[in-house]
């Protein structure tokens, strides 16, 4: 993701830049929403700062999910929607991750991330380092594959059909 | 000294007070819940996956089925997200009608919660009364959309149709009689000693834990945090309506009950204001690429017929980008994260459903309480399993 020229940097971004001058932050602004791309290595300290800085107080993790950019490298994006109850601001954080690579778990920053990360693991197969209980949440334990990956079919023929077709 | 042993039992997935196919693995020390592990996914239907293969308008009926008690809330969140991506705003009449029907939906949803929650705790009459009033709301939904539950009345760019003749009178008559009905429920429950005994001090959650666990809606407001998306980040013209945000102090089952009762009163106030300020005019954006031509024109104009055909076969394209739009559903913050690649289908569509997030806090609320309290606590969170599992 490239920086968008002329993108209006809001207070959150300037405070982060001030606090973490060495961190690579790419910013994109679209429809009055700011997206911040961070490196997995910086994720936890940036999240902690966003939550604890008295001028920001992003204490509420609204949502955590992922996008499969099948064909791109790195393949996945893990997306965090943060909300500040105090200032009523929203910001979106993104981390890019390769297949078979793990992202640091943010459960130590926001407790609610536990189920969200389990869902991302279940649906995309993305691992989360230091997650206290990383296992499937919606699909059965023995389920094969990760349904929200782009290369997982929307409609699949049942196994008995394929077996029958192969046997003919 | 006797050895103290715990017993593990399953509650659900088929149990009336789990409010759907929810399985709770309970570790019990006598009647005390030592540990509670919710198991979900029994109703998982892959809605987000299906949405990736549907055109934008075709996704609306899917959102209905997620939270079948508040289908119009889901419609609203989704259409607002698509409209944000498109960069369009619907006409004022459509906005006000959306608010009116969403608030009626909130009342209807809270009535189902009240009835089922009360019956879990043993109060039968409230259940019958609440469903009687909800019937009137389902009738209204039928009048505007033709469907009682899965109404899919909101469309990207506006509404499916204008309000039918005499609809405003029906709504006015409902909001005139409803406050008295609400007072009747309160007579039955609010100061009822059994109700108080079963709900006060039960399932307490502290404000800091509520924020940490992402609780929203009446559940977080009952802890004393007056956060309501309609006020904090208004959408669909909510900033022009006067209403108060519910707030509790103790964060227990009783406060969650009081918050929802108060919210029903406030919804009545909002619906009254929508009737007062309902503007005339169009109910959809004047864009032939989004809005189908009126039926009579299709019979006269080849251009209109082509547009109609294209809309139903190809849909419309949405600029590439991503948005997050959230609304205050009856259960809390209902968010739609939508990623577009510029085609006529969502590239990725994710629903931040309040039931999913709120249910995560169940373990914290019940551990150390009696099994009987668990029944009251699940009811007070107001989950819809269709929304939890998606």
From TrEMBL, chain A:
<dbReference type="Pfam" id="PF00329">
    <property type="entry name" value="Complex1_30kDa"/>
</dbReference>
<comment type="function">
    <text>NDH-1 shuttles electrons from NADH, via FMN and iron-sulfur (Fe-S) centers, to quinones in the respiratory chain. The immediate electron acceptor for the enzyme in this species is believed to be ubiquinone. Couples the redox reaction to proton translocation (for every two electrons transferred, four hydrogen ions are translocated across the cytoplasmic membrane), and thus conserves the redox energy in a proton gradient.</text>
</comment>
<dbReference type="InterPro" id="IPR001268">
    <property type="entry name" value="NADH_UbQ_OxRdtase_30kDa_su"/>
</dbReference>
<dbReference type="InterPro" id="IPR020396">
    <property type="entry name" value="NADH_UbQ_OxRdtase_CS"/>
</dbReference>
<dbReference type="InterPro" id="IPR037232">
    <property type="entry name" value="NADH_quin_OxRdtase_su_C/D-like"/>
</dbReference>
<keyword id="KW-0813">Transport</keyword>
<protein>
    <recommendedName>
        <fullName>NADH-quinone oxidoreductase subunit C</fullName>
        <ecNumber>7.1.1.-</ecNumber>
    </recommendedName>
</protein>
<keyword id="KW-0830">Ubiquinone</keyword>
<keyword id="KW-0472">Membrane</keyword>
<dbReference type="GO" id="GO:0048038">
    <property type="term" value="F:quinone binding"/>
</dbReference>
<keyword id="KW-0874">Quinone</keyword>
<dbReference type="GO" id="GO:0005886">
    <property type="term" value="C:plasma membrane"/>
</dbReference>
<comment type="similarity">
    <text>Belongs to the complex I 30 kDa subunit family.</text>
</comment>
<feature type="domain" description="NADH:ubiquinone oxidoreductase 30kDa subunit">
    <location>
        <begin position="37"/>
        <end position="156"/>
    </location>
</feature>
<keyword id="KW-1003">Cell membrane</keyword>
<keyword id="KW-1278">Translocase</keyword>
<dbReference type="GO" id="GO:0050136">
    <property type="term" value="F:NADH dehydrogenase (quinone) (non-electrogenic) activity"/>
</dbReference>
<dbReference type="GO" id="GO:0008137">
    <property type="term" value="F:NADH dehydrogenase (ubiquinone) activity"/>
</dbReference>
<dbReference type="InterPro" id="IPR010218">
    <property type="entry name" value="NADH_DH_suC"/>
</dbReference>
<comment type="subunit">
    <text>NDH-1 is composed of 14 different subunits. Subunits NuoB, C, D, E, F, and G constitute the peripheral sector of the complex.</text>
</comment>
<keyword id="KW-0520">NAD</keyword>
From TrEMBL, chain B:
<dbReference type="GO" id="GO:0051287">
    <property type="term" value="F:NAD binding"/>
</dbReference>
<keyword id="KW-1278">Translocase</keyword>
<feature type="domain" description="NADH-quinone oxidoreductase subunit D">
    <location>
        <begin position="120"/>
        <end position="390"/>
    </location>
</feature>
<dbReference type="GO" id="GO:0005886">
    <property type="term" value="C:plasma membrane"/>
</dbReference>
<protein>
    <recommendedName>
        <fullName>NADH-quinone oxidoreductase subunit D</fullName>
        <ecNumber>7.1.1.-</ecNumber>
    </recommendedName>
</protein>
<dbReference type="GO" id="GO:0048038">
    <property type="term" value="F:quinone binding"/>
</dbReference>
<dbReference type="Pfam" id="PF00346">
    <property type="entry name" value="Complex1_49kDa"/>
</dbReference>
<dbReference type="InterPro" id="IPR014029">
    <property type="entry name" value="NADH_UbQ_OxRdtase_49kDa_CS"/>
</dbReference>
<comment type="subunit">
    <text>NDH-1 is composed of 14 different subunits. Subunits NuoB, C, D, E, F, and G constitute the peripheral sector of the complex.</text>
</comment>
<keyword id="KW-0472">Membrane</keyword>
<comment type="similarity">
    <text>Belongs to the complex I 49 kDa subunit family.</text>
</comment>
<keyword id="KW-0520">NAD</keyword>
<dbReference type="InterPro" id="IPR001135">
    <property type="entry name" value="NADH_Q_OxRdtase_suD"/>
</dbReference>
<dbReference type="InterPro" id="IPR029014">
    <property type="entry name" value="NiFe-Hase_large"/>
</dbReference>
<keyword id="KW-0874">Quinone</keyword>
<keyword id="KW-0813">Transport</keyword>
<dbReference type="GO" id="GO:0050136">
    <property type="term" value="F:NADH dehydrogenase (quinone) (non-electrogenic) activity"/>
</dbReference>
<keyword id="KW-0830">Ubiquinone</keyword>
<dbReference type="InterPro" id="IPR022885">
    <property type="entry name" value="NDH1_su_D/H"/>
</dbReference>
<keyword id="KW-1003">Cell membrane</keyword>
<keyword id="KW-0560">Oxidoreductase</keyword>
<comment type="function">
    <text>NDH-1 shuttles electrons from NADH, via FMN and iron-sulfur (Fe-S) centers, to quinones in the respiratory chain. The immediate electron acceptor for the enzyme in this species is believed to be ubiquinone. Couples the redox reaction to proton translocation (for every two electrons transferred, four hydrogen ions are translocated across the cytoplasmic membrane), and thus conserves the redox energy in a proton gradient.</text>
</comment>
């Amino acid at each position: 993701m490239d920086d968008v020229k002329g993108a209006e940097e809001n207070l959150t971004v300037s405070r982060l830049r001030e606090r973490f001058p060495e961190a690579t932050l790419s910013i994109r602004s679209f429809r009055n929403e700011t997206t911040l791309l961070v490196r997995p290595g910086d994720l936890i300290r940036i999240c902690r700062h966003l939550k604890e800085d008295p001028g920001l107080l992003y204490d509420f993790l609204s949502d955590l999910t992922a996008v499969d950019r099948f064909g791109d490298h790195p393949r996945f994006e893990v997306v965090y929607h943060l909300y500040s109850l105090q200032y009523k601001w929203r910001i979106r954080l993104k981390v890019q991750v390769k297949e078979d690579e793990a992202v640091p778990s943010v459960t130590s920053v926001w407790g609610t991330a536990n189920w969200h990360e389990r869902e991302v693991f279940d649906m995309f197969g993305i691992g989360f380092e230091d997650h206290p209980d990383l296992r499937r949440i919606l699909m059965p334990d023995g389920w094969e594959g990760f349904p929200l990956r782009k290369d997982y079919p929307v409609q699949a023929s049942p196994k008995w059909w394929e077996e029958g077709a192969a046997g003919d | 000294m006797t050895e103290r042993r715990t017993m593990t039992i399953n509650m659900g997935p088929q149990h009336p007070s789990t409010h759907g196919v929810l399985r709770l693995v309970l570790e019990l020390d006598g009647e005390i819940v030592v540990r509670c592990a919710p198991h979900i996914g029994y109703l998982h239907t892959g809605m987000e996956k299906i949405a990736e293969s549907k055109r934008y308008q075709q996704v609306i009926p899917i959102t209905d089925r997620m939270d079948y008690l508040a289908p119009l809330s889901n419609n609203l969140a989704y259409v607002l997200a698509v409209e944000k991506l498109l960069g369009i705003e619907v006409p004022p009449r459509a906005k006000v009608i959306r608010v009116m029907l969403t608030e009626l939906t909130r009342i209807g949803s809270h009535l189902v919660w009240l009835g089922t929650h009360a019956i879990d705790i043993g109060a039968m009459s409230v259940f019958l009364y609440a469903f009687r009033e909800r019937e009137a709301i389902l009738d209204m939904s039928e009048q505007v959309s033709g469907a009682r539950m899965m109404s899919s009345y909101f469309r990207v760019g506006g509404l499916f149709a204008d309000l039918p003749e005499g609809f405003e009178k029906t709504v006015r008559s409902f909001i005139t009689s409803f406050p008295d009905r609400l007072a009747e429920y309160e007579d039955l429950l609010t100061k009822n000693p059994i109700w108080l005994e079963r709900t006060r001090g039960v399932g307490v959650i502290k404000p800091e834990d509520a924020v940490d666990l992402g609780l929203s809606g009446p559940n977080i407001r009952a802890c004393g945090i007056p956060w309501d998306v309609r006020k904090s980040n208004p959408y669909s013209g909510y900033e022009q309506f006067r209403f108060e945000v519910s707030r509790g102090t103790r964060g227990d089952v009783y406060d969650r009950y009081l918050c929802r009762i108060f919210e029903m009163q406030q919804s009545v106030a909002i619906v009254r204001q929508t009737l007062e300020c309902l503007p005339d005019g169009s109910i959809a954006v004047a864009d032939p690429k989004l809005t189908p031509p009126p039926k009579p024109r299709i019979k006269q104009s080849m251009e209109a017929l082509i547009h109609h055909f294209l809309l139903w076969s190809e849909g419309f394209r949405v600029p590439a980008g991503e948005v997050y739009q959230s609304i205050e559903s009856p259960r809390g913050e209902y968010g739609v994260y939508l990623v577009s690649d510029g085609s006529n289908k969502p590239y990725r569509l994710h629903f931040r459903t309040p039931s999913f997030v709120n249910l995560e806090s169940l373990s914290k609320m019940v551990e150390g309480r009696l099994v009987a309290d668990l029944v009251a606590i699940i009811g007070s969170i107001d989950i819809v399993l269709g929304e939890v599992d998606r």
